[in-house]
Design brief:
about 140 residues; 4 helices
Length: about 140
């Protein structure tokens, strides 16, 4: 794995801005806050974690060199808050393995409590698996 493929603070912020722009173009009121979220309840929006990438990310996280916030959507579903991880699956897994319980995240949310999201649909297709339980691929 080459280093340049890993996320940077600038690319992460650009990704958040891009996601927000798409929602706004669809007329969806979505806000973004930077705050801490619990790691163990994050639902994955992919079906596995790349083992090679995880190895590199794990080392960087342990060294404190990859502290970029992850990207999360927050929805109020079935009478509870649910967090879907949009970006940062390897970082979250590495933090869980290191014994951490929360992570700084760009949290996308709506005053309506929930909103139509393709990320939720993808997570459901994969079985609403928590990041901590994703298989390595």
């Amino acid at each position: 794995m080459r280093r340049e493929k890993l996320v940077t603070a600038e690319s992460q912020k650009a990704r958040v801005d891009e996601i927000l722009a798409v929602y706004r173009s669809q007329g969806v009121a979505v806000h973004c806050d930077l705050r801490r979220v619990p790691l163990h309840s994050l639902i994955a929006t992919q079906d596995g974690i790349e083992a090679d990438k995880l190895e590199v990310v794990r080392r960087l996280v342990q060294q404190g060199k990859l502290t970029i916030p992850v990207v999360v959507e927050e929805h109020f579903l079935n009478d509870r808050l649910t967090h879907y991880l949009l970006d940062g699956h390897c970082r979250v897994r590495s933090l869980i393995e290191a014994g951490k319980t929360s992570v700084e995240a760009y949290v996308l949310w709506s005053p309506a409590g929930t909103f139509r999201s393709n990320f939720i649909e993808v997570a459901r297709q994969y079985g609403d698996v928590r990041v901590k339980d994703l298989p390595l691929v």
